[in-house]
Amino acid sequence: MSFKELKLNKPILKAIAEAGYHEPTLVQEKTIPLVMGKKDVIASAQTGTGKTASFALPILQLLFDRQDAPKRGKKIKALVVSPTRELAVQIGENFKTYGKYSNIRSAVIYGGIPMEPQVDILKKGLDVLVATPGRLLDLHKQELVDLSAVEILVLDEADLMLDLGFIDDVNKIARLCPEEKQVLLFSATIPFKVEQLAKTILKSPERVDVSPELPAAGNVSQLLYYVPKKNKMELCLHLLRNNIKGSILIFRRTKMGVDKLERTLSKNGYKVETLHGDKSQNDRKTALGKFKNNYVNILIATDLAARGIDVKELDAVINFDLPNLPDTYVHRIGRTGRAGKMGMAYSFCSADEKQYARNIQQSIHIQIPVIEDHPFPLDPKAKPEIHKKKTGSKHKKGRKGAGSKKKKKRWY
Ligand code: AMP
Question: Which whole number is the average pLDDT over 39-45?
Answer without folding.
Answer: 94
